[in-house]
C-alpha cells in the first residue's frame, strides 16, 4: 500500500498486518493530533520511504519513537526503537482498505471523560501498554 503526508513530501509503501484499527488516548497522541490517533499495524520491516527528505523521527520514550513530516507536520508512524513493532496513521494511506474495523483503544485510563466511541473494543491501560513494550527490552 502507498501512503504519504499532507504535503506529499514524505511518501512510503507499507504492508498492513491486518485491518484492525487502534486508537491511542495517551497525552502525547492527544497533544500531537488535538484528538486521538487511529493507527493500523504493519508487517515488520515493510515500512519503506520513497520520499524522505522531510522525514523526522522523535524519540518519545525509552522504547518508542514517532515519525512525521517536518514540512507539513503530518504524524506518520509510531514504532519501537528496535523496529520490531510499527503502526502507521491509518489516514496517511492513499487508499485505505474498505474492511477496516476499530478493535482496540490503548491508554484508556488517560482518556478524557468528554468523548467516547460507541464501538466495542479491547481496552488497555497505560500500565498494560508500557509492560507490553518495555518487557521486550
Automatic annotation (TrEMBL):
Keywords: Lyase, Metal-binding, Zinc. The keyword Lyase applies. It comes from the Bacteria. InterPro entries: CENP-V/GFA (IPR006913), Mss4-like_sf (IPR011057). Residues 1-108 form the CENP-V/GFA domain. SUPFAM superfamilies: Mss4-like (SSF51316). Gene3D superfamilies: glutathione-dependent formaldehyde- activating enzyme (gfa). Belongs to the Gfa family. PANTHER family: CENP-V_GFA DOMAIN-CONTAINING PROTEIN-RELATED (PTHR33337:SF40), GFA DOMAIN-CONTAINING PROTEIN (PTHR33337). This is GFA family protein. It comes from Acinetobacter chinensis.
Amino acid at each position: 500500500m502507498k501512503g504519504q503526508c499532507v504535503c506529499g513530501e514524505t511518501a512510503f509503501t507499507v504492508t498492513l498486518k491486518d485491518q484492525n484499527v487502534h486508537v491511542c488516548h495517551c497525552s502525547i497522541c492527544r497533544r500531537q493530533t488535538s484528538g486521538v490517533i487511529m493507527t493500523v499495524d504493519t508487517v515488520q520491516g515493510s515500512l519503506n520511504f520513497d520520499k524522505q527528505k522531510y522525514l523526522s523521527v522523535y524519540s518519545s520514550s525509552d522504547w518508542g519513537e514517532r515519525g512525521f513530516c517536518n514540512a507539513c507536520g503530518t504524524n506518520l508512524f509510531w514504532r519501537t526503537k528496535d523496529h520490531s513493532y510499527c503502526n502507521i496513521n491509518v489516514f496517511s494511506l492513499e487508499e485505505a482498505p474498505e474492511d477496516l474495523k476499530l478493535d482496540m483503544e490503548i491508554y484508556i485510563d488517560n482518556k478524557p471523560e468528554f468523548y467516547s466511541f460507541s464501538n466495542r473494543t479491547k481496552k488497555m491501560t497505560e500500565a498494560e501498554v508500557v509492560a507490553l513494550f518495555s518487557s521486550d527490552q
